[in-house]
Amino acid sequence: MALVTLQETTLAHGRGRHRHVVLDSISLALQPGERVALLGRSGAGKSTLLEALRGELGNAAAWCPQGQGLVGALSVYHNVYMGRLERTSTWRNLRNLLRPEHHAWEAVAELCTLLGIGELLRRPVEQLSGGQRSRVAIARALYQARPHFLGDEPIASVDPHQGARLLRLITERHGMCLIALHQRELALTHFDRVIGIEQGRIALDEPTSDLTLEQLDALYRPWTPASPG
Amino acid sequence: MRSTVPGRPRPLADLLASNRLGRLNRVALGMIALTLILLPAADLSITVRDPWAELQRMTGGLLTPAFSQLSAPLEAIGLTVAFALWGVALGLLAGIPLTLLFHRSRLIRGLCAALRAVHELFWALLFLQVFGTSAITALAAIAVPFAGIFAKVFAEILNQLDPAPASALPRGTGRLSRFLYVEWPQARAQLLAYIRYRFECAMRSSLLLGFVGLPTLGFHLESAFRQGRYHEAGAELLIFYLLIAGLPWWGHRRLLWLLLPLSGWLLGPWPEIDPSLAWRFVSQDIWPPPLLAGDPAGLVQWWSRLPALGPAIGNTLLLALMGTAGTLLVALALWPLVCRHFNGPVRRWLGAGALIVLRSTPEFLFAFVLLLLTGPSMLPAWIALALHNGALIAFLVARQADELSPGLPGIRGLDLYCWELLPRIFPGLLALVCYRAEVIMRETAILGILGVATLGFQIDAAFAWLHFDTALLLLIITCLLNLAVDALSRRLRPERSLTAASCDSPGPPA
Fold first, then answer.
1. Which helix (H) or strand (E) covers residue B448, if one does?
2. The domain that contains A192 carries what CATH number?
3. Which residues are bridge partners to A207 per DSSP?
4. Transmembrane stretches, by residue range (chain B) (predicted)?
């Protein structure tokens, strides 16, 4: 039984005259427990696909968006805390903003230590480096403690060694993981399956055991877009 | 499209003909032409016998303020500040929930527009009937329209934030939690700056509340002016300007925790409200009796006994049009006074001083003073509207011009004005004038309280005669007119990414 299925679904932005089809009539099924890497050039439609799946899975999947979507003026602790904002009352959220709650602080501190940002809990996010921010965004997604995980380039701005460690942390804690990334080597070593998107369609959908690095490179070859019409 | 003759340069003709500015110029020229056509219909008479002698006496008095003649300055200052401070605080208390619902409900947007469209002084006249000359009237008169204004401007500010953090939140996050964690931290500086600007507006409103009988500085100012005690009026005006100029210091965020409770203590004694009388006012007094009795024939008769609406509405619209066109011309003429391209530092400081005084004086007070010299016609109202709003816009436009650097070397004076700077700042200037049209419309209506024949005159009269049903109808008409003018100016103004917040406020202090 598949966890989520798309059957000849067309994903588009905008309406009417401004409608722009990103992915045309795609089909795919994701199984529970599967670790899936999503590859493709920038702008190929990875984010659109992930957004659509987020809509299907709702709060069953932790969400780590592209560009992190952190609130710069708030501390690392508060940004991570936001992962569970919907589970506590507004009143408690307000109190926690003024004075961090003991339990939540402990939980967030433990998670952040694991991710190597344990020292930065009180630091406003706007003062952090790109790599540190990525880890805050991952911490926020892990703090959500959902059965599944959807990530849009969560490890884009960390080095490959760190990236491998972070991927392990993510996949250990979730059933199905669908993660967009550009590091092809990591896709082969840390995932069960690769979905490749090219020119508005799914160009590749194979178990990693059948794939080689060259096949993945093909997804990134230059192509000339058809003239819009 | 006309082609320009090569050879002799004609900057203004080119400006008018150029495609980009074509629509803007049609709006501006159309407005000025319409004003000129309708001008004969406006009552611009001077009915005071010797205005120049009075002006001389007034200027003499204002320039030699006498602080010793003030009756109770500290109490009046305290109340002016207390009303403004608590009015803004209550306005925020109501405005923030409205902000959070603003984009969800058309009903809320309509409600906010209606709250904004009625001027603080009209709200005061309405609340006076129930709460008398008490702090409740003053606070409600400021807080109610401010709630609508805060809701609209805050919603616009929040709308322009980066949407990424909000969309990263888990589904089902409460609206208030989203505001606290995502929107407030991101928009904090902008929201605080706007609240600070609104506090300055509230100080002006608080002053004006004196004109309908609340014991603020305006109350003493009005009687001093009316009785010709110009030395005392000069002292009170000076105190008011100093209060406004000193706002960044005494109104500092850190002092608020001290100011709020201290000034709150001044607000008492609280009136005793008879609930049955208040209920009677709301359920009976403000409605036409035939409507409550279900008598259609009586309603027709009631309608025929109303004061003549046509001339009042016509005068209100005409004065608003004249005020807007006048604002445009004054702004065009005054901005070079404070622009670095035309002045050295000394002249710029003098210009800035003059413009700040014009800007800090509420139109209503300005019109009141001029009216003492000319008698109740549209002339003082027109001058006051044009000078106050023109000065405000001139200031903003000059800041914009300061950032430009002329491309042609050695260009100066009128050439610099026409060729280099005006074409670049004109769209912004016109956008500001269009935004301001709504404010001018609001002010136009209340100038009637001073005796100018706009809707406010009839509203004030209806309240004086205790014809609350008539007053409410006129208030609703005023409100609808204001909404219509707002919609019109929204259509005419240049489509630029100017938010109401950025042009409604005078910006960071220069």
1. none
2. 3.40.50.300
3. A193
4. 27-48, 76-102, 122-151, 202-221, 233-251, 312-337, 471-488
Give burial (CB, 10 Å; 0-12/13-18/19+) of B450: buried
Candidates A86, A87, A150: best to mutate against B (most CBs of B within 10 A) is A86
What pLDDT is attached to residue B17?
A: 56
Q: Which of A139, A118, A176 is nearest to A64 (CA)?
A: A139
* CA–CA separation, B195 and A30 (whole Å): 50
- Cα separation of the two ends of chain A: 40
Q: What is the model's pLDDT at position B497?
A: 40
Residue A123 domain-assigned (yes or no): yes
The count of structural domains within chain A is 1
Cβ separation A69–B164 shorter than 8 A:
yes
In a domain, A224, yes or no: no
Q: Which residue has the tokens 């070397």?
A: B409
Walk me through the domains of chain B, giving residue ranges and CATH numbers.
20-49+306-504 (1.10.3720.10), 61-273 (1.10.3720.10)
Q: From the CA atom positions of chain A, what is the Rg in Å?
A: 19
Residue A185 inside a domain? The answer is: yes
Respond yes or no on whether ipTM tops 0.95: no
- Give me B415's structure tokens: 């050439």
**For residue A69, which residues of chain B lie inside 8 Å, CB to CB?**
164-168
How far apart, in whole angstroms, are the C-alpha atoms of residue B65 and residue A110?
68
B470: which 2 tokens?
Answer: 């008539």
Contacts of B166 in chain A (CB under 8 A): 69
Could you tell me the pTM of the whole model?
A: 0.85
Per-residue pLDDT at A98: 93
What average pLDDT does this structure show over B465-478?
92
Q: Within a domain: residue A227?
A: no
H helix or E strand, kind and range, residue B449: none
Residues forming beta bridges with residue A38, ordered by sequence position: A180, A195
Structural tokens at position B24: 């803007």
Element (H, E) at B464: helix B455-464
Whether residue B331 contacts residue B397, with contact meaning beta carbons closer than 8 Å, is answered with: yes
The pLDDT of residue B15 is: 54
Asked if B192 has any chain A CB less than 8 Å from its own CB, the reply is no
Contact check, Cβ <8 Å, B177/A84: no
Q: Which member of A58, A70, A90 has the closest CB to residue B165?
A: A70
Confidence of residue B99 (pLDDT cuts 50, 70, 90): very high
Take residue B248 and report the two structure tokens written for it: 């960044």
With 70 as the cut, is the pLDDT of residue A144 above it?
yes
Helix, coil or strand: residue A152: strand
CA B331/CA B325 separation, integer angstroms: 10
| Burial tier of B375 (Cβ tally within 10 Å: 0-12, 13-18, 19+) | middle
The CB-side HSE value for B375 (13 A sphere, CA atoms) comes to 9
Res. B114: pLDDT tops 70? yes
Segment A12-66, tens digit of pLDDT = 887 777 788 888 888 899 999 999 999 988 888 899 999 999 999 988 999 999 8
Contact of B185 with chain A, judged by CB distance below 8 Å, is answered with: yes
Confidence of residue B251 (pLDDT cuts 50, 70, 90): confident
Amino acid at B103: H
pLDDT of residue B4: 43
* Contact assignment for B170 to A83 by CB distance below 8 Å: yes
pLDDT digits (tens, 9 = 90+) for A145-197: 999 999 999 998 888 888 999 999 999 999 999 999 988 889 999 999 999 99
Tell me which chain A residue has its CA closest to the CA of residue B180.
A94
Domain that holds residue A201: 4-218
The two beta strands, A201-207 and A193-198, are antiparallel
Give the relative orientation of helices B230-245 and B345-360 as an angle to the nearest 10 degrees: 110
B189 and A CB contact within 8 Å: no
